[in-house]
Amino acid sequence: MPRSIRDVALVVVLLGLCLALIFSYGKKSEIGAAEAVVYRVFRPLEQGVSGVKNKLASLWNNYVYLVGVQQENRALKEELSRLRREKAELAAREAENIRVRKLLDIKTRLEHPSVVAQIIGEDASGWFRTFFIDKGTDDGVFAGMPVTATEGLVGRISRSAANMAQVVLITDSALAVDCRVARTRDRGVLRGALEGGCALRYLSPRAQAQEGDEVITSGLDGVFPSGLPIGRIHAIRMGEQGLFLEALVTPSVDFAALDQVLVILSTRGGFDVQSWTEERP
Q1: pLDDT attached to residue 245
Q2: What distances in angstroms separate CA 50 from CA 20, 159, 165, 261, one per listed residue?
Q3: 278 part of a folded domain
Q4: How far from the centroid of its chain's Cα atoms is residue 7's Cα?
Q5: Is 90 exceeded by the pLDDT of residue 137?
Q6: Which backbone phi and psi does 169 adopt, to 5 degrees?
Q7: Are residues 136 and 241 in the same domain?
Q8: Which residue ranges traverse the bilayer (predicted)?
Q9: CA distance linking residue 191 with residue 251, whole number of Å
Q10: What local confidence, expressed as pLDDT, does residue 232 receive?
Q11: Is 268 exposed, middle or buried (0-12, 13-18, 19+ CB in 10 A)?
Q12: pTM for the whole thing?
């Protein structure tokens, strides 16, 4: 018989004797001399086996516990991620609701009918400062109509199709807006500036405009209603010909953050200039 098999058999026999002694010890009130000797010999072995058994049981219980904790942590992380997504969605909806409420508030205060439009795209070429909205001729939106936002004037409809339209921004040099400085009533023509923002040109050399003054539409061009915010002056300089002053204006509207605008539904020919030049009480 191989040695390894004999060793295993011997261990099994010794363990059997040990267990027999342990069980017989519980049934007898006294232990014989031979049994006592055997018990003393195998007691350390029995204690070792019992200790290993207890450690294995403890390790198994710890493993089961850790598996449970990992599953619980995974579930908690998934729940946390879901709650964060829901919070972000709610915040986005709340911000959108606030923007819509502000647009509707402007809509109710305007003297002219208007329609809220969603921005659906930008000019891909990058040569022109324009974007596209989801309203068109089917909604009463035609070329030449003013476009505004909660912060101020955005631009003007340049082209319109059945269900979409193109808007040219006030920062485009091709668009001209008749404006005033709100504080001093100095009048000029606003166009997009090559260095960014806008330039209020043809101001009188005697103009009292200063940095920080607000610029608004005058309503005298027959295109844009009066009083729409444009932006604030951040610099004043002499014009190229040296005949007029020129004010550099930072627009009130953050065009990069826009997603909704308000189209003012004027008549096809623009606003009646006469109605804006009449004296009002």
Answers
A1: 94
A2: 15, 90, 85, 79
A3: no
A4: 73
A5: yes
A6: -85, 160
A7: yes
A8: none
A9: 11
A10: 96
A11: exposed
A12: 0.61
Domain that holds residue 25: 1-109
Name the pLDDT band for 272 (thresholds 50, 70, 90).
very low
**DSSP β-bridge partners for residue 246:** 237
- For 213, other C-beta atoms within 10 Å of its C-beta total 19
Domain boundary among 83, 109, 135: 109
For residues 136 and 94, state if they share a domain. no
Distance CA 121, CA 187 (A): 34
Say yes or no to pLDDT of 236 above 80: yes
Residues 6+ apart with CB under 8 A from 202: 188, 189, 239, 244, 246
Tens-place pLDDT, residues 94-117: 777 676 676 666 666 667 788 889
Residue 16 lies in a domain: yes
pLDDT at position 62 is 74
**Do 91 and 153 have their domain in common?**
no
Q: In this structure, are 264 and 132 located in the same domain?
A: yes
